[in-house]
Design goal:
Layout (H helix, E strand, L loop, with lengths): L7 H18 L9 E5 L2 E9 L37 E6 L7 H13 L4 E6 L5 H13 L5 H19 L2 H28 L4 H8 L1 H16 L4 E4 L7 E5 L2 E4 L1 H14 L4 E5 L2 E3 L5 E3 L4 H12 L4 E6 L20 E3 H6 L10 H9 L4 E5 L8 E4 L13 E7 L2 E7 L9 H11 L6 E4 L5 E7 H14 L1 H5 L12 E4 L5 E7 L3 H13 L4 E7 L3 H21 L2 E8 L3 E4 L9 H7 L2 E2 L2 H10 L5 E6 L4 H4 L2 H6 L3 E3 L4 H4 L2 H13 L4 E2 L11 H9 L4 E7 L2 H9 L6 H10 L8 H4 L2 H13 L25 H7 L4 H13 L2 E10 L4 E10 L11 E8 L7 E6 L3 H18 L5
Parallel strand pairs: 3-4, 3-11, 4-8, 5-8, 11-13, 12-14, 21-22, 21-25, 25-26, 26-27
Antiparallel strand pairs: 1-16, 2-15, 2-20, 6-7, 9-10, 13-14, 16-18, 17-18, 19-20, 22-23, 23-24, 28-29, 28-31, 29-30, 31-32
Helix pairs in contact: 1-12, 2-4, 2-7, 3-4, 3-5, 4-5, 5-7, 9-11, 12-13, 16-30, 24-25
This protein binds 1,4-dihydronicotinamide adenine dinucleotide (NAI), the ligand N[C@@H](CC=O)C(=O)O and sodium ion (NA).
The site of the ligand N[C@@H](CC=O)C(=O)O has 11 residues, from α24.
């Protein structure tokens, strides 16, 4: 892990300097009390990379390794000018990009399409070849004869690729070189076989052939198009010095000299160079170790002062988090060198930190691009801000987790102000060879905690117990509580590390990521009751979601849909183009408690809303709990606001005291702005005197259309068919639905009425009140058609129409629901379709009431009203208006 950590040099430096202190001064911990413990259950840390700040420096050392197989390099002095600067662009193509002859051809096409004056192309071996080459060495030194067959396979692979890609003289000369190289390799491997051992140089010599062959093939492929191209064995140019286990540092001066010399012999406009391989100052072949081709590209880019180094790979760029853990991860368009350095942990681990060092000093941007998706612009890693306002995108760039760590906590009151405590602790840690990933100590000095790889914690713990045995034996230790969390921020300010329990890591990662990368108006939506209104709402969301995201930064994700028998859950968002099909095929048995848990347990999205599109009383009874959990509620269901007064008041009190929202515009007048108008009046200090009107779309439709041409039962069936009625149309005909709306408006106006306080004139014939189902009721309704025809004729004879009205009499604190007769010229007689008309008489609108009129029922308008509430919620959460 340390090889991939963002700041390995810094971590090691810390440990090393503490260790030095110990040797020089020893520890001086006298009479101090402490607790010592370690927790194996602690699992991971979340790192948060930040922007801003200054560079970290990189030091190199000068260890040299024994020489082995040498390569020859001409040493004559040639003073041809090596052009440097903006005319050069450097490209690097990894093994996957060079994986097949077709891909090598695509690489050639990409290189040829770059209009830069000069191009330097660094290539890796064809995919899997480096492993095949290491395997050859491994087999030979284990005296496994099959290395000969394995070498044959390597040969066949390259011969087949070359035959596919090249022809004529190019093919012949490549194959002749391949034959000769394979003969040398056979000899080298045979020597290794006999010795039963391969020196590092021998191994590097063998392994580097993958690059030699891929570079030659690409160079021939480019030359085929007529472009001037040479290939370069980078071992002739790139000189490195070992700088630690599995690590080398470039010798820039010597490399530049050699590059100049090489160029004087072959001043081509396009140079294809081998990645990964290099040589020592003594011309011994070596490699830049794993991920070395990126490093080669960065060094060569620095040597020619390229305008840009493009690293081609198979991902669209650098992700904001590991996309396997956070599906919301996005490609970052820009990163500073320091951020990229810190972020080298990620799943899309596209860049080794040391790759950044050579280009950083010359301020050369690195661009990570996807060879298989040329249209993606990739991620640019550079020093300068990429946009006008001086910021590199967001203030926080990325999140990553490191698993399997253990946190060691050393704690005691005697630690404060005692010099040497930490050096004593870290001396012990160093002695067992454990790598400290993170250290945290508060200025109170009473505790110090640090994270080490879990596999090393047992040794660390045992060594600490031995080191502090006396204090333990003297009973100066109390039983320690394990510090389950720690947080650390280094002075570089590029990284904040938080230690968490392993099982919390991915959740924490998602939550932290969403906080920075999702807009604060990202809403996770749970739809309850995908019937007429719920289903229409889902379709409206499907059609409008992209527009809202694009224009208003409102990101609506339906992460759950539940009906009464099945439910469909998703962590990141259901594909609304096929929600019906998914609900049929992939649903699980409905369980409202689990559904709500799915919502509240989701840590990806910053806001959650449950949309109750049922007419169910029991669903409505849960609003209080949902609001308490911080889940917003939106509904067209009238049951909560027209249910028992005490529950209603409790719900509203909770909602007003919290920052959780509850919207229910569609409960009265469907999509018409009734609740919002009333609120607007009240909140601006107007006084409601009376609200009167036709509140039922169903009853409006019935009486607007029951004009002697169709029977009453036919018109009721039409209203049901049109989607105006409640799931059970008796709720409409009984006047209960209107009474509920009257109660909702009355309570909104401050009246404390119960549903039972409203006298209701029911239109349901008594004989049908006890029907066991809505269907049975509809079937039996025609037998009352004659009674209705009579009532209608009587009214008509008097020049009047029938209208079902509701009244909130705020002055007298009461409500009414009645079937009335109105003269034909009365505004209520002028309605059509499912029109509602609501007249607000207030202190301000006293002479002429404020009137809202329009369709008050139906799928589209009602779902539209619910949708409006969702946008109202987004707006409350900060969406632009
Ligand atoms: N139709 C309209 O014009 C208007 C309707 N509304 C209200 O909209 C709501 C829905 O009405 P419609 O869509 O017409 O009814 P619907 O009967 O078509 O849909 C209701 C859906 O809820 C489901 N459901 C019932 N109980 C459930 C439970 N416990 N858990 C999960 N799902 C459950 C049903 O299976 C059905 O899919 C009602 O409250 C109604 O009063 C409000 C304004 C206008
Ligand atoms: N069934 C209701 C629907 C709206 O609330 C009506 O007819 O008005
Ligand atoms: Na409304």
């Amino acid at each position: 892990m340390t090889g991939r950590v963002a700041l390995p040099v810094v971590h090691r430096a810390m440990v090393a300097s503490l260790a030095t202190n110990i040797r020089q001064g020893g520890t001086s911990a006298q009479c101090w009390k402490y607790d010592l413990s370690q927790d194996r259950s602690l699992g991971g840390s979340v790192r948060i990379g930040q922007s801003q700040g200054s560079f970290l420096t990189h030091r190199s050392t000068n260890l040299l390794r024994p020489a082995a197989a040498a390569i020859s390099v001409e040493q004559d002095d040639v003073n041809t000018y090596l052009p440097k600067g903006d005319m050069w662009s450097v490209h690097k193509f990894g093994g996957t990009c060079m994986g097949t002859p077709q891909r090598i051809q695509s690489v050639a096409d990409i290189v040829l399409s770059d209009s830069s004056e000069r191009k330097l192309v660094i290539v890796s071996a064809m995919s899997k070849v480096t492993d095949m080459m290491y395997n050859l060495v491994h087999k030979a030194q284990s005296r496994d004869d099959s290395y000969m067959i394995a070498l044959e396979e390597v040969f066949e692979k390259h011969m087949a690729a070359a035959k596919d890609l090249l022809d004529g003289e190019d093919l012949a000369s490549f194959l002749s070189q391949l034959h000769s190289d394979v003969s040398s390799l056979r000899a080298m491997l045979s020597a290794i076989y006999i010795a039963g051992h391969a020196t590092e140089s021998f191994s590097d010599f063998v392994v580097g052939h993958g690059e030699l062959w891929s570079a030659q093939m690409l160079s021939y492929a480019i030359k085929k198009s007529g472009a001037p191209c040479s290939w370069m064995d980078t071992r002739e140019v790139l000189v490195v010095k070992p700088s630690g286990p599995n690590q080398v540092d470039p010798d820039y001066l010597e490399s530049e000299k050699r590059l100049q010399k090489w160029f004087s012999r072959q001043p081509a406009e396009i140079i294809v160079a081998t990645g990964f391989i290099a040589s020592t100052a003594e011309n011994i072949p070596t490699t830049l170790k794993r991920d070395g081709s990126d490093f080669s590209a960065a060094i060569i880019g620095s040597l020619v002062r390229a305008r840009q180094v493009t690293i081609w790979t198979d991902v669209d760029g650098v992700f904001s988090a590991d996309p396997r853990k956070v599906s919301e991860a996005v490609i970052l368009s820009t990163l500073s060198y320091q951020e990229a350095w810190e972020m080298s942990y990620f799943g899309a681990n596209v860049l080794h930190p040391r790759t950044i060092i050579p280009v950083m000093k010359d301020n050369i941007p690195i661009v990570i691009r996807n060879m298989f998706n040329i249209s993606a612009p990739g991620t640019m890693i550079c020093r300068q801000p990429a946009n006008d306002n001086g910021d590199l995108d967001a203030c926080v760039k990325s999140f990553a987790t490191i698993d399997n760590l253990a946190l060691v906590n050393v704690e005691g009151t005697g630690m404060a102000g005692v010099p040497g405590t930490s050096s004593a602790i870290f001396s012990v840690v160093k002695d067992v060879g454990a790598n400290v990933i993170m250290i945290s100590q508060a200025s109170s000095e009473h505790s110090i905690c640090f994270a080490v790889p879990e596999k090393e914690v047992a040794a660390v713990s045992a060594a600490l117990h031995v080191r502090f045995r006396e204090a333990l034996a003297a009973g100066r230790l109390s039983k320690a509580n394990i510090n389950v969390r720690a947080i650390a921020q280094g002075c570089s300010e590029y990284n904040i590390t938080v230690v968490l329990k392993q099982e919390d890591c991915v959740r924490a990662l998602r939550a932290a990521h969403s906080r920075f990368f999702l807009s604060k108006t990202t809403l996770a939506v749970g739809i309850i009751g995908p019937g007429l209104i719920g289903g229409t709402l889902l379709n409206q969301l499907k059609d409008q979601a992209a527009v809202l995201k694009e224009n208003m930064n409102i990101d609506l994700r339906v992460i759950g849909i539940t009906g009464s028998s099945t439910m469909l859950l998703s962590d990141t968002g259901i594909d609304l183009t096929q929600w019906k099909e998914l609900l049929r095929k992939e649903a699980e048995p409905a369980d409202l408690a689990n559904f709500v848990r799915h919502m509240s347990d989701n840590h990806v999205f910053p806001n959650k809303v449950l949309v109750d599109c049922t007419a169910d009383t029991s669903v409505a009874s849960h609003y209080y709990d949902w609001l308490k959990k911080g889940i917003h509620v939106i509904t067209p269901n009238k049951k909560a606001n027209s249910g028992p007064l005490d529950r209603y008041l409790k719900l509203r009190t909770l909602q007003r005291a919290s920052y959780t929202h509850y919207f229910y515009e569609a409960t009265v007048g469907a999509g018409l702005p009734i609740i919002s108008t009333l609120r607007g009046l009240l909140e601006t200090g107007d006084k409601i005197l009376r609200i009167e009107g036709i509140f039922s779309g169903t009853l409006s439709y019935i009486f607007n259309n029951f004009e002697g041409t169709r029977t009453f039962s036919n018109v009721v069936a039409e209203a049901k068919e049109a989607g105006y009625t409640e799931p059970d149309p008796r709720d409409d005909l009984s006047g209960t639905d209107v009474a509920r709306k009257v109660i909702i408006l009355a309570r909104e106006s401050g009246l404390t009425l119960e549903l039972s306080d409203i006298p209701v004139k029911s239109l349901v014939p008594e004989a049908l009140a006890s029907c066991s189902s809505a269907d049975e009721f509809m079937q039996k309704l025609p037998s009352f058609d004659e009674d209705w025809a009579k009532q209608r004729s009587e009214a008509e004879a008097a020049g009047e129409v029938l209208r079902y009205v509701g009244v909130v009499d705020a002055v007298n604190q009461k409500g009414q629901v009645e079937l009335r007769r109105y003269k034909r010229d009365h505004p209520f007689a002028q309605l059509s379709g499912s029109d509602n008309i609501i007249a607000f008489t207030t202190s301000r609108y006293k002479e002429q009431p404020l009137i809202v009129r329009g369709p008050g029922a139906g799928a589209e308008v009602t779902a539209g009203g619910v949708f409006c509430d969702m946008l109202r919620l987004a707006s409350s959460l900060g969406a632009p208006s």
